[in-house]
Amino acid sequence: MPLRILVATRIYAPETGAAAFRLAAMVKALQGRGHHVTVLTTSSPGAKRSSPSVRRWPVLRDKSGAVRGYVQYASFDIPLFLRLLTAPAFDLVVVEPPPTTGVVVRVATALRRRPFVYFAADVSSVAAEGIGVSPAVVRVLRAIERWTLSRARRILTVSEGVSTAVAALVGQSDRIVNVGTGVDTDQFTNDGPAGPDDGGRYFVYAGTMSEIQGAGVFVDAFISIAAEYPDVRLVMYGQGVELDELRARAEAVSAPIDFRGTVDGDQISTALRGSVAGLASVRPSRGYDFAFATKALVSLSCGTPVIYAGVGPLKNIIADENLGVSVDWEPAAVAAAMRDALAWPQDAAQRQRISGWVQQNYSLRSVGARAAEAIEAAASE
After folding, report:
1. Which of 58, 112, 104, 110 is nearest to 85 (CA)?
2. Which CATH architecture has domain 4-182+363-380?
3. pLDDT by residue (tens digit) across 271-285?
Protein backbone atom coordinates (compact mmCIF):
# COMPACT_ATOMS: atom_id res chain seq x y z
CA MET A 1 0.00 0.00 0.00
CA PRO A 2 1.47 3.40 -0.94
CA LEU A 3 2.77 5.48 1.93
CA ARG A 4 2.22 9.21 2.39
CA ILE A 5 5.61 10.56 3.44
CA LEU A 6 6.72 14.06 4.39
CA VAL A 7 10.38 15.08 4.22
CA ALA A 8 11.44 18.01 6.42
CA THR A 9 14.72 19.59 5.36
CA ARG A 10 16.20 23.08 5.16
CA ILE A 11 18.25 22.12 2.06
CA TYR A 12 17.00 20.39 -1.06
CA ALA A 13 17.74 20.27 -4.76
CA PRO A 14 18.60 22.30 -6.78
CA GLU A 15 20.80 23.60 -3.98
CA THR A 16 24.16 21.87 -4.06
CA GLY A 17 25.34 19.86 -1.08
CA ALA A 18 25.54 16.30 0.13
CA ALA A 19 22.23 16.51 2.01
CA ALA A 20 20.37 17.93 -0.99
CA PHE A 21 21.67 15.22 -3.33
CA ARG A 22 21.13 12.41 -0.81
CA LEU A 23 17.55 13.39 -0.02
CA ALA A 24 16.68 13.83 -3.69
CA ALA A 25 17.91 10.28 -4.34
CA MET A 26 15.84 9.01 -1.41
CA VAL A 27 12.72 10.80 -2.67
CA LYS A 28 13.25 9.45 -6.18
CA ALA A 29 13.56 5.91 -4.83
CA LEU A 30 10.43 6.24 -2.69
CA GLN A 31 8.44 7.64 -5.59
CA GLY A 32 9.74 4.84 -7.79
CA ARG A 33 8.25 2.38 -5.31
CA GLY A 34 4.85 4.05 -5.65
CA HIS A 35 4.84 6.15 -2.49
CA HIS A 36 3.56 9.72 -2.29
CA VAL A 37 6.29 12.06 -1.06
CA THR A 38 6.02 15.76 -0.22
CA VAL A 39 9.16 17.71 0.65
CA LEU A 40 8.78 20.60 3.11
CA THR A 41 11.80 22.80 2.50
CA THR A 42 13.00 26.35 1.89
CA SER A 43 12.90 28.83 -0.93
CA SER A 44 16.37 28.87 -2.42
CA PRO A 45 18.29 30.65 -5.19
CA GLY A 46 17.08 29.25 -8.48
CA ALA A 47 14.12 27.43 -6.91
CA LYS A 48 11.87 29.96 -5.21
CA ARG A 49 8.56 28.45 -6.29
CA SER A 50 6.83 25.42 -4.88
CA SER A 51 5.63 22.42 -6.86
CA PRO A 52 3.05 19.79 -5.89
CA SER A 53 5.77 17.55 -4.43
CA VAL A 54 8.21 20.20 -3.13
CA ARG A 55 6.66 22.84 -0.88
CA ARG A 56 8.98 25.79 -0.27
CA TRP A 57 8.91 28.45 2.45
CA PRO A 58 10.99 31.66 2.61
CA VAL A 59 13.69 31.64 5.29
CA LEU A 60 16.51 33.80 6.57
CA ARG A 61 19.97 32.99 5.23
CA ASP A 62 23.37 34.14 6.43
CA LYS A 63 25.57 36.41 4.31
CA SER A 64 27.01 33.41 2.48
CA GLY A 65 23.52 32.26 1.49
CA ALA A 66 23.32 29.27 3.83
CA VAL A 67 20.56 28.44 6.31
CA ARG A 68 23.01 28.24 9.19
CA GLY A 69 22.74 29.76 12.67
CA TYR A 70 20.11 29.80 15.41
CA VAL A 71 18.06 32.62 13.90
CA GLN A 72 18.21 31.06 10.43
CA TYR A 73 17.23 27.65 11.81
CA ALA A 74 14.31 29.20 13.70
CA SER A 75 13.05 30.88 10.52
CA PHE A 76 12.61 27.39 9.08
CA ASP A 77 11.69 25.43 12.21
CA ILE A 78 8.86 27.63 13.52
CA PRO A 79 6.87 27.66 10.27
CA LEU A 80 7.69 23.96 9.83
CA PHE A 81 5.88 23.17 13.08
CA LEU A 82 2.71 24.81 11.78
CA ARG A 83 3.15 23.18 8.36
CA LEU A 84 3.34 19.74 9.98
CA LEU A 85 0.32 20.37 12.20
CA THR A 86 -1.81 21.50 9.25
CA ALA A 87 -0.52 19.05 6.64
CA PRO A 88 -2.98 16.56 5.14
CA ALA A 89 -2.89 13.08 6.64
CA PHE A 90 0.50 11.38 6.38
CA ASP A 91 2.06 8.10 7.51
CA LEU A 92 5.60 9.13 8.39
CA VAL A 93 8.06 12.05 8.40
CA VAL A 94 11.72 11.90 7.42
CA VAL A 95 13.80 14.68 8.98
CA GLU A 96 17.31 15.93 8.27
CA PRO A 97 19.49 17.78 10.85
CA PRO A 98 19.94 20.20 12.55
CA PRO A 99 18.65 18.86 15.89
CA THR A 100 16.33 21.86 16.31
CA THR A 101 14.39 20.65 13.27
CA GLY A 102 14.40 17.19 14.83
CA VAL A 103 12.79 18.60 17.97
CA VAL A 104 10.06 20.25 15.91
CA VAL A 105 9.38 17.01 14.07
CA ARG A 106 9.34 14.92 17.25
CA VAL A 107 6.77 17.21 18.89
CA ALA A 108 4.62 17.63 15.78
CA THR A 109 4.54 13.91 14.96
CA ALA A 110 3.67 13.11 18.57
CA LEU A 111 0.71 15.47 18.32
CA ARG A 112 -0.28 13.92 14.99
CA ARG A 113 0.40 10.41 16.36
CA ARG A 114 2.72 9.48 13.55
CA PRO A 115 6.30 8.12 13.54
CA PHE A 116 9.39 9.80 12.15
CA VAL A 117 12.75 8.72 10.74
CA TYR A 118 15.89 10.74 11.43
CA PHE A 119 18.48 10.88 8.63
CA ALA A 120 21.70 11.46 10.58
CA ALA A 121 24.43 12.52 8.19
CA ASP A 122 26.39 13.60 11.25
CA VAL A 123 26.12 14.00 15.02
CA SER A 124 25.84 17.72 15.68
CA SER A 125 26.94 17.61 19.31
CA VAL A 126 30.13 15.76 18.38
CA ALA A 127 30.84 18.30 15.65
CA ALA A 128 30.16 21.23 17.98
CA GLU A 129 32.55 19.84 20.55
CA GLY A 130 35.18 19.36 17.84
CA ILE A 131 35.12 22.98 16.71
CA GLY A 132 35.43 24.33 20.24
CA VAL A 133 31.87 25.30 21.11
CA SER A 134 31.34 26.07 24.81
CA PRO A 135 31.03 22.87 26.89
CA ALA A 136 27.76 24.13 28.33
CA VAL A 137 26.31 24.59 24.87
CA VAL A 138 27.57 21.16 23.82
CA ARG A 139 25.84 19.56 26.82
CA VAL A 140 22.55 21.21 25.91
CA LEU A 141 22.91 20.25 22.26
CA ARG A 142 23.76 16.66 23.20
CA ALA A 143 20.68 16.45 25.44
CA ILE A 144 18.46 17.83 22.66
CA GLU A 145 19.92 15.45 20.12
CA ARG A 146 19.57 12.44 22.43
CA TRP A 147 15.97 13.41 23.27
CA THR A 148 15.08 13.68 19.59
CA LEU A 149 16.79 10.48 18.46
CA SER A 150 15.31 8.48 21.32
CA ARG A 151 11.88 8.69 19.67
CA ALA A 152 12.91 8.10 16.05
CA ARG A 153 11.46 4.91 14.58
CA ARG A 154 14.66 4.55 12.54
CA ILE A 155 17.95 6.47 12.44
CA LEU A 156 19.58 6.40 9.01
CA THR A 157 23.32 7.07 8.88
CA VAL A 158 25.82 7.62 6.08
CA SER A 159 28.80 5.64 7.44
CA GLU A 160 29.90 3.22 10.13
CA GLY A 161 31.57 6.12 11.92
CA VAL A 162 28.31 8.03 12.20
CA SER A 163 26.51 4.84 13.28
CA THR A 164 29.03 4.38 16.09
CA ALA A 165 28.63 8.00 17.22
CA VAL A 166 24.83 7.73 17.17
CA ALA A 167 24.92 4.46 19.13
CA ALA A 168 27.12 6.11 21.76
CA LEU A 169 24.58 8.92 22.05
CA VAL A 170 21.36 6.90 22.25
CA GLY A 171 22.77 3.83 23.97
CA GLN A 172 21.37 1.32 21.49
CA SER A 173 21.86 0.29 17.89
CA ASP A 174 18.88 -1.82 16.84
CA ARG A 175 17.17 1.18 15.17
CA ILE A 176 20.29 2.43 13.37
CA VAL A 177 20.60 1.64 9.67
CA ASN A 178 23.74 2.58 7.76
CA VAL A 179 22.53 3.37 4.24
CA GLY A 180 25.91 4.69 3.12
CA THR A 181 26.77 7.74 1.10
CA GLY A 182 27.36 8.48 -2.53
CA VAL A 183 27.04 10.88 -5.43
CA ASP A 184 24.55 11.43 -8.22
CA THR A 185 26.35 9.56 -10.98
CA ASP A 186 23.69 10.59 -13.49
CA GLN A 187 24.54 14.27 -13.07
CA PHE A 188 28.22 14.03 -12.17
CA THR A 189 29.72 12.04 -15.00
CA ASN A 190 32.80 11.79 -17.15
CA ASP A 191 30.69 12.37 -20.26
CA GLY A 192 30.08 15.95 -21.31
CA PRO A 193 31.80 19.26 -21.97
CA ALA A 194 34.97 20.16 -20.10
CA GLY A 195 35.68 23.81 -19.46
CA PRO A 196 36.55 26.52 -19.56
CA ASP A 197 38.04 26.81 -23.03
CA ASP A 198 40.70 29.41 -22.27
CA GLY A 199 43.54 26.90 -22.33
CA GLY A 200 44.54 27.50 -18.74
CA ARG A 201 45.05 24.87 -16.08
CA TYR A 202 43.20 24.96 -12.77
CA PHE A 203 42.27 23.10 -9.61
CA VAL A 204 38.66 22.96 -8.36
CA TYR A 205 37.32 23.05 -4.82
CA ALA A 206 33.53 22.64 -4.80
CA GLY A 207 31.80 22.55 -1.44
CA THR A 208 31.32 24.15 1.94
CA MET A 209 34.10 26.32 3.32
CA SER A 210 33.89 26.00 7.09
CA GLU A 211 36.15 25.19 10.00
CA ILE A 212 35.23 21.51 9.61
CA GLN A 213 36.36 21.14 5.99
CA GLY A 214 39.38 23.42 6.38
CA ALA A 215 39.43 24.58 2.75
CA GLY A 216 41.99 27.20 3.72
CA VAL A 217 44.71 24.56 3.43
CA PHE A 218 44.22 24.63 -0.36
CA VAL A 219 44.27 28.43 -0.51
CA ASP A 220 47.50 28.59 1.49
CA ALA A 221 49.09 25.79 -0.51
CA PHE A 222 48.17 27.34 -3.84
CA ILE A 223 49.45 30.77 -2.81
CA SER A 224 52.80 29.17 -2.05
CA ILE A 225 53.17 27.74 -5.58
CA ALA A 226 51.29 30.31 -7.68
CA ALA A 227 54.42 32.18 -8.77
CA GLU A 228 55.92 28.94 -10.14
CA TYR A 229 52.91 28.28 -12.38
CA PRO A 230 51.58 31.57 -13.80
CA ASP A 231 49.15 29.69 -16.08
CA VAL A 232 47.43 27.87 -13.19
CA ARG A 233 44.40 29.02 -11.17
CA LEU A 234 42.49 27.79 -8.18
CA VAL A 235 38.70 27.88 -8.61
CA MET A 236 36.56 27.76 -5.46
CA TYR A 237 32.83 27.00 -5.67
CA GLY A 238 30.51 27.12 -2.67
CA GLN A 239 29.87 29.06 0.49
CA GLY A 240 30.56 28.85 4.20
CA VAL A 241 31.63 30.77 7.26
CA GLU A 242 35.28 30.92 6.13
CA LEU A 243 34.52 32.27 2.65
CA ASP A 244 35.19 35.94 3.40
CA GLU A 245 38.41 35.15 5.24
CA LEU A 246 39.70 32.98 2.41
CA ARG A 247 38.82 35.59 -0.20
CA ALA A 248 40.66 38.27 1.80
CA ARG A 249 43.67 35.98 2.17
CA ALA A 250 43.87 35.51 -1.59
CA GLU A 251 43.30 39.17 -2.40
CA ALA A 252 46.05 40.27 0.01
CA VAL A 253 48.66 38.60 -2.20
CA SER A 254 46.83 39.00 -5.55
CA ALA A 255 46.71 35.22 -5.98
CA PRO A 256 44.87 33.90 -9.05
CA ILE A 257 42.06 32.34 -7.01
CA ASP A 258 38.49 32.66 -8.27
CA PHE A 259 35.62 32.47 -5.77
CA ARG A 260 32.52 31.73 -7.84
CA GLY A 261 29.87 31.16 -5.19
CA THR A 262 27.15 28.56 -5.44
CA VAL A 263 26.34 27.22 -8.91
CA ASP A 264 24.34 24.28 -10.17
CA GLY A 265 25.68 20.76 -10.50
CA ASP A 266 26.06 20.91 -14.27
CA GLN A 267 28.47 23.85 -14.02
CA ILE A 268 30.49 22.04 -11.37
CA SER A 269 30.63 18.92 -13.53
CA THR A 270 31.89 20.90 -16.51
CA ALA A 271 34.52 22.62 -14.39
CA LEU A 272 35.71 19.40 -12.81
CA ARG A 273 36.02 17.56 -16.11
CA GLY A 274 38.42 20.23 -17.34
CA SER A 275 40.47 20.54 -14.15
CA VAL A 276 43.85 19.13 -13.21
CA ALA A 277 42.43 17.74 -9.96
CA GLY A 278 39.54 18.14 -7.59
CA LEU A 279 40.24 19.15 -3.99
CA ALA A 280 38.63 17.75 -0.84
CA SER A 281 39.47 17.85 2.84
CA VAL A 282 38.33 16.98 6.34
CA ARG A 283 40.23 18.94 8.97
CA PRO A 284 41.49 16.75 11.85
CA SER A 285 40.16 17.02 15.39
CA ARG A 286 37.04 18.98 14.52
CA GLY A 287 34.54 16.29 15.42
CA TYR A 288 34.28 14.92 11.88
CA ASP A 289 37.24 12.56 11.69
CA PHE A 290 34.81 9.81 10.58
CA ALA A 291 33.19 11.86 7.79
CA PHE A 292 33.05 11.09 4.09
CA ALA A 293 33.96 14.18 2.07
CA THR A 294 31.28 13.88 -0.59
CA LYS A 295 32.96 16.58 -2.70
CA ALA A 296 35.73 14.04 -3.35
CA LEU A 297 33.20 11.59 -4.76
CA VAL A 298 31.73 14.34 -6.97
CA SER A 299 35.15 14.98 -8.49
CA LEU A 300 35.88 11.28 -8.96
CA SER A 301 32.49 10.70 -10.55
CA CYS A 302 33.48 13.26 -13.19
CA GLY A 303 36.61 11.22 -13.84
CA THR A 304 38.87 13.77 -12.15
CA PRO A 305 41.52 12.59 -9.67
CA VAL A 306 41.49 14.11 -6.19
CA ILE A 307 43.98 15.73 -3.88
CA TYR A 308 42.63 14.78 -0.47
CA ALA A 309 43.88 16.50 2.68
CA GLY A 310 43.16 15.46 6.23
CA VAL A 311 41.33 12.54 7.82
CA GLY A 312 38.34 10.33 7.20
CA PRO A 313 37.63 7.02 5.43
CA LEU A 314 38.27 8.47 1.97
CA LYS A 315 41.90 9.25 2.79
CA ASN A 316 42.92 5.60 2.57
CA ILE A 317 40.41 4.72 -0.14
CA ILE A 318 41.81 7.33 -2.53
CA ALA A 319 45.35 6.12 -1.95
CA ASP A 320 44.53 2.40 -2.12
CA GLU A 321 42.39 2.67 -5.27
CA ASN A 322 44.78 5.03 -7.11
CA LEU A 323 42.18 7.78 -7.36
CA GLY A 324 44.57 10.65 -6.76
CA VAL A 325 46.74 11.43 -3.76
CA SER A 326 46.07 11.67 -0.01
CA VAL A 327 48.13 13.92 2.25
CA ASP A 328 48.04 15.36 5.73
CA TRP A 329 46.06 18.54 6.37
CA GLU A 330 49.10 20.75 6.02
CA PRO A 331 49.84 23.46 3.39
CA ALA A 332 53.32 22.21 2.48
CA ALA A 333 52.05 18.67 1.88
CA VAL A 334 49.17 19.96 -0.23
CA ALA A 335 51.50 22.24 -2.22
CA ALA A 336 53.74 19.26 -3.03
CA ALA A 337 50.70 17.28 -4.16
CA MET A 338 49.62 20.17 -6.41
CA ARG A 339 53.06 20.27 -8.03
CA ASP A 340 52.87 16.53 -8.67
CA ALA A 341 49.34 16.79 -10.05
CA LEU A 342 50.41 19.41 -12.60
CA ALA A 343 52.73 16.77 -14.05
CA TRP A 344 50.08 14.03 -14.21
CA PRO A 345 49.27 12.89 -17.75
CA GLN A 346 45.75 13.70 -18.90
CA ASP A 347 44.79 10.10 -19.60
CA ALA A 348 41.25 9.56 -20.92
CA ALA A 349 41.31 5.87 -20.03
CA GLN A 350 42.37 6.65 -16.47
CA ARG A 351 39.57 9.17 -16.08
CA GLN A 352 37.05 6.65 -17.36
CA ARG A 353 38.34 4.10 -14.82
CA ILE A 354 37.97 6.59 -11.98
CA SER A 355 34.42 7.52 -13.00
CA GLY A 356 33.47 3.86 -13.37
CA TRP A 357 34.80 3.06 -9.91
CA VAL A 358 32.42 5.62 -8.37
CA GLN A 359 29.45 4.32 -10.35
CA GLN A 360 30.15 0.84 -9.10
CA ASN A 361 30.82 1.67 -5.46
CA TYR A 362 29.26 5.01 -4.48
CA SER A 363 26.23 5.75 -6.62
CA LEU A 364 23.42 7.60 -4.84
CA ARG A 365 20.95 5.30 -6.56
CA SER A 366 21.92 2.50 -4.17
CA VAL A 367 21.89 4.88 -1.18
CA GLY A 368 18.39 6.04 -2.07
CA ALA A 369 17.19 2.46 -2.46
CA ARG A 370 18.56 1.43 0.95
CA ALA A 371 17.01 4.49 2.58
CA ALA A 372 13.64 3.73 0.96
CA GLU A 373 13.75 0.14 2.23
CA ALA A 374 14.50 1.30 5.77
CA ILE A 375 11.67 3.83 5.66
CA GLU A 376 9.21 1.20 4.44
CA ALA A 377 10.30 -1.09 7.28
CA ALA A 378 9.84 1.70 9.82
CA ALA A 379 6.34 2.49 8.54
CA SER A 380 5.29 -1.16 8.72
CA GLU A 381 6.00 -1.54 12.47
Report:
1. 112
2. 3-Layer(aba) Sandwich (3.40)
3. 999 999 999 999 988
